[in-house]
Amino acid sequence: MEISGKSIKHATPRQILEHGVAHIPEDRQRHGLILSFPIHDNMMLCTYYKDPFARGISLQEKPIFSNADVLVKQYDVRTPNIYVNAGTLSGGNQQKVIVAREFSRPIELLIASQPTRGLDVGSIESIHSQIIKKRDEGSGVLLVSSELDEILALSDRIAVMYKGQIMAIVDANKTTKEQLGLLMAGVHPSDTSNKN
Asked: Which pTM was predicted?
């Protein structure tokens, strides 16, 4: 497995992050945030050990707070302030914290798993626009979703899996929900055409 021509076969999670991989996990509360930490700490979880957030083993509060203030405004995170715990935010705002953190560093590949599950329409539109912006900036995007509308709206190519196998890879602008539904059920379009 390679990213930008560099092997990550035996890479640690930190090395994978440093190769430019960003991740929006399916379960934001278990794998995306530390709910008991304030927003400002959650905003720099991937880069807490780097300048300007750390000097040796000492965290630098001023740049940490400044970074959080900028990201809260830029990604429209609705919060009373950056000092409240991430666990007090609504689901949509928790997701915006993750998106802000992941997108605020240079990335080559975004892996987004169910990025808008359980969110309100406003949060969904906000996150979709951020994903499209990253794609337009040249980042690769691997979107994993069970929402057909989301897949069709955001994807260039769609790989449909059934029982752990890729059934087909199709162009998003040349397929329909019906065709995707058949593939998701394990029926390849060529199977149905052979019966007619």
From this structure: 0.87
